[in-house]
């Protein structure tokens, strides 16, 4: 798929590390001009991606990103809404405050809603384009004592993505959702190290315990971020020109529902 995205301009939010960085690199390798956004500038300045500093949990960030893209590039073909994070504490409904719920919704749902609303007019000028919203498996299989508010926000993102795909299909814009399971990001590795120290077990045992908490992973390991990036690269390409309104699980088979 070399040069399959040549001439395309893509925005990847949360594109400085983990899944977002892998997606940005894969799109760039396929020939796209890639813009990344995050709260802090990436440590690696050699990525070649154009960086826009923005906190996507804040409403004004979408207009800031739009104005900078219009000024520098004047066009946009692809949006990958990857910015998101599990922010709230575990423990179930009684632990979660109104602020916890709002934090999850602002970052994991409204960041994508606002980016799409601000930037879609730029994409619509082309009469073709692609939006990928990055969800997570807990949207479909929540864990009550770990991901209640996060799962609710991501489930809302899934529903929003389906509705947006229905609205934009006739205008030449495709919208799909990619839903990873457990992914070996730097954030996950740090969490596993902390868990291993707390429980006095190995990192491998900590990782295995999380996989078991998720109901098991038939392939026996977390995903690499690059594997998620490969799926996104395919979905934004012309090879996926008849795919819209779909949710793609990439979880090693861990999701236990059909």
List keywords for this structure.
258 residues, seven-stranded parallel beta sheet, Rossmann fold, alpha/beta
CATH architecture of the largest domain: 3-Layer(aba) Sandwich
Total DSSP E strands: 7
CATH topology of the largest domain: Rossmann fold
How large is the share of residues in beta strands? 5-15%
**Overall residue-averaged pLDDT value:** 93
What's the CATH C level of the largest domain?
A: Alpha Beta
Structural class: alpha/beta
- Spatial shape: globular
CATH-defined superfamily of the largest domain: NAD(P)-binding Rossmann-like Domain
How do the strands line up in the largest sheet?
3-2-1-4-5-6-7
Quick one: biggest sheet?
7 strands, parallel
SSE string, helix = H, strand = E? EHEEHEHEHEHHHE
Rg of Cα set: 18 Å
Total number of distinct structural domains: 2
Query: What helical percentage do the residues reach?
Result: 40-55%
| Count, helices | 7
């Amino acid at each position: 798929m070399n040069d399959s995205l040549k001439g395309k301009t893509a925005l990847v939010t949360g594109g400085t590390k983990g899944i977002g960085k892998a997606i940005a690199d894969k799109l760039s390798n396929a020939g796209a001009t890639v813009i990344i956004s995050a709260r802090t500038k990436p440590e690696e300045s050699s990525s070649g991606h154009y960086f826009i500093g923005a906190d996507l949990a804040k409403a004004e960030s979408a207009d800031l990103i739009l104005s900078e893209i219009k000024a520098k590039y004047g066009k946009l073909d692809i949006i990958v809404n990857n910015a998101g994070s599990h922010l709230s504490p575990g423990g179930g409904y009684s632990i979660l405050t109104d602020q916890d719920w709002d934090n999850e919704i602002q970052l994991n749902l409204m960041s994508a809603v606002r980016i799409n609303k601000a930037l879609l007019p730029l994409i619509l000028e082309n009469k073709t384009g692609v939006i990928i919203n990055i969800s997570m498996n807990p949207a479909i299989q929540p864990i009550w004592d770990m991901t209640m508010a996060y799962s609710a926000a991501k489930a809302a993102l899934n529903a929003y993505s389906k509705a947006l795909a229905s609205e934009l299909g006739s205008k030449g814009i495709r919208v799909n959702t990619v839903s990873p399971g457990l992914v070996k990001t730097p954030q996950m590795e740090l969490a596993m190290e902390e868990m291993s120290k707390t429980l006095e077990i190995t990192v491998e045992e900590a990782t295995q315990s999380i996989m078991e908490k998720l109901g098991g992973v038939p392939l026996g390991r977390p995903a690499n971020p690059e594997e998620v990036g490969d799926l996104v690269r395919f979905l934004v390409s012309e090879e996926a020109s008849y795919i819209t309104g779909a949710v793609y699980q990439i979880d090693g088979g861990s999701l236990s529902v059909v």
